[in-house]
Structures are given as structure tokens and as C-alpha cells.
Write the C-alpha cells for this entry.
Amino acid sequence: MLDYQAPQDLLTDRVILITGAGDGIGKACALSCAAHGATVILIGRTPSKLEAVYDEIEASGFPQPALCPLNLETALEKDYVDLADQLFDTFGKLDGLVHNAALLGPRTLLDNVKAEAWLQLMQVNVNAPFLLSKSMMPLLRAAPDASVVCVSSSVGRKGRAYWGPYAVSKFALEGMMQVFADEQDGTSAIRFNSLNPGATRTSMRAAAYPGEAPEKNPEPAQIMPAFLYLLGPDSKAVNGQALDAQ
Ligand code: NDP
């Protein structure tokens, strides 16, 4: 999908929410969507990082974004419902939702994983995407062709030793995507797909592979064609698919 050529106005008039928008792939996704005309809603846990992305979008003259600090580890269902209410009042619809934020967590034998670390990771990587999707459904239904992108991983499609709760959480995300996709198939214009970014130069990649030369992998900006394809109208007919960005 790296050869997808997005027209400059691909996402004009679209409202797209991205979690983990302050760093790595989520940041690149926010900048790229804004550069293609979208109004982006920046969700993340570190306000200073979100503000930097907000400033970069404004300085570039792209549509004014919305900034919503939210810690997915501690957010309650009411926080997601309140967010949906605010977005409904401001925008009236949501055209795109990117479940990007995630924790890598402990990489060790599964039987060595502490219960607390397991629960923390599942809260961010699985429970938060579910609660966010659920609360945003009325807004997604109000858009002409909404797209939900679940950012997955190769270890969410084939289990691998020592990838711990992270791998299990990505399987759960893939499962959630498939169930939502099947439910919406033929009943709404909302599509749900998963996207495996592949090895990408971010702090999560560096933490997972400390011995690897970072230059070996593409920058987040280089894998954006796949995100743009899934968030724009060219992927209207694509639903329930597990795709690879690279
Ligand atoms: P980074 O660690 O660089 O970025 C993760 C983002 O998630 C950060 O913005 C982080 O916020 C945010 N985040 C983490 N915890 C929370 C929380 N509790 N509440 C709100 N936001 C949170 O990772 P990547 O950019 O590499 O990863 C993005 C996605 O891509 C993930 O889903 C990852 O699993 C997936 N992926 C990445 C690959 C790679 O090679 N990079 C390969 C395969 C999949 P903050 O910056 O404030 O900490």
C-alpha cells in the first residue's frame, strides 16, 4: 500500500480522531491527515506532545485541530461518552477513528507476566479502543462513509514467544475489528479494518529492538499512504480486512 498516491484534498471536510497522536505513528498520522484536509482530533496522555502537534498543524495552515488530553489507562466510560457529546456538539459527525495508542508492556515468558502489568496493558490496548468505538458509533453513523482503523501488529496475527500481553492484546483488537465489521456490513456505511504498520522508526520499536539500527526502518511519515487509503473514500468497499502498511 506504500504506492498509494493520495490526492491533496483526499480528506477535505472529514473529521478524524487519532489516539496516541502526540508521538510516533499517531503523530505522523495526525500531520498527514491534516495535510490532506482533515480536521483532526488529537487524543493522548501527554499534553505537551499534543500541543506540539497542534502547533505544527496550525503553523502549516492546515484545518484547525482539536486537542483532547485523555489517559486511556484511567479513562472511564463516562469520559468517552462526554467526549462523544462534545464532538457531536462541535462537529456533528466523525469520519475516521484511528485506534493507534498502545503500550508495549513486558516482553517475557507469559507465565512471568505480572497480573498488574497484564491488566494495565489490556486497559490501554483493548478496553480503551472498545469503549471509544462504542461511544463514537452515533457520530460514525452520522458520517457518509466512516472508517475505523485498528493499528495492529504481526504478533496480533501469529503469536510469537516473549511478546507477552502485547501480542494477546493485538489479537483482541483484531477480533473486535472483525466483529464490528461483520455487524456493520450491509447495515451502515461504517467500515472497520486493521492495519499492521510493520517495523517503523519510533520509540516503541527502539524499546522492542534495542540493538537494532533505527535507520533500518522507515520513518512513520513514510508509511502514511496506507493510513490515508483506509481513511479516505478510495477504501469505501474495504471492510473487515487485516492489512499491512508495508
Ligand atoms: P510510540 O510508543 O512511539 O507511540 C505510542 C503512542 O501511544 C504515544 O503517543 C503514547 O503517548 C500513546 N499512549 C500510550 N499509552 C497511552 C495512554 N495510556 N493514554 C493515551 N495515549 C497513550 O509507538 P508507535 O508509534 O511505534 O506505535 C503506534 C502503534 O503502532 C501502536 O499501536 C503499536 O502497537 C503499533 N505498531 C508499531 C510498530 C513499530 O514498529 N513502531 C510495529 C507494529 C505495530 P505518549 O507519547 O504520551 O507516551
Summary: The first strand starts at residue 15 and ends at 19. The beta strands are 15-19, 39-44, 66-69, 96-99, 147-151, 191-196, 242-244.
